[in-house]
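can u do me a favor
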């Protein structure tokens, strides 16, 4: 495939994706343009229409980001039609399964071994591990709260005892999850990375402990 053919193919794919998602949301090109404007970006309806019909080659990166946001999508969904076709031409000489294209774009391609320390992939992986740890801690915290509430409002003694035991178990799990998350965040800081903000309910993880130590 020549470079011109590849560029034209990418443009056609992008235009088709924008049109499909816009229509799925019941939006006109004008409404999509107005939504972009509400997000602080100027993407005229004429530009959107021209991209959809192929009269304009593509969006710029900034336009792609705001149009995706206006359509309530991750930008990758406008680039690769996951589930809609089997393969996509990611480069002039490279046609791959759509899922492979998506994982390449999001830096999730499976690796045979850990990424080199300090590499972009290693940084992404560190944030993914952190996100998983936050989810785990939030789950333990939610279940702890549920059993505490049930223990406080259940009149049946046996059921109340069950909820108290479960609350104790999830309380211990939350403690372990919080300690693991604190260690992860400390490790990220030693690597000169800025950990993401924690959910409000987990903000205590970054607070100094009772002995005056730092997170």
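np, heres the sequence
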């Amino acid at each position: 495939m020549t470079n011109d053919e590849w560029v034209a193919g990418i443009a056609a794919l992008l235009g088709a994706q924008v049109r499909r998602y816009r229509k799925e949301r019941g939006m006109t090109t004008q409404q999509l343009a107005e939504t972009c404007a509400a997000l602080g970006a100027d993407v005229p309806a004429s530009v959107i229409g021209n991209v959809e019909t192929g009269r304009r080659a593509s969006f710029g990166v900034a336009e792609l980001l705001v149009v995706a946001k206006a359509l309530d999508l991750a930008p990758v969904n406008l680039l690769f039609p996951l589930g809609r076709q089997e393969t996509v031409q990611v480069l002039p000489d490279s046609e791959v399964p759509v899922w492979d294209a998506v994982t390449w774009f999001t830096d999730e391609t499976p690796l045979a071994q850990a990424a080199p320390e300090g590499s972009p992939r290693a940084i992404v992986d560190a944030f993914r591990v952190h996100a998983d740890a936050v989810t785990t801690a939030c789950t333990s915290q939610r279940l702890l709260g549920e059993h505490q509430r049930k223990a406080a409002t259940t009149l049946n003694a046996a059921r109340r005892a069950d909820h108290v035991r479960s609350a104790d178990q999830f309380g211990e799990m939350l403690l372990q999850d919080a300690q693991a998350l604190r260690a992860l965040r400390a490790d990220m800081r030693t690597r000169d990375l800025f950990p993401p903000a924690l959910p409000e309910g987990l903000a205590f993880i970054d607070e100094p402990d009772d002995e005056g130590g730092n997170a």
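Residues 130 and 184 are 7 Å apart (CA to CA). hope that helps!!
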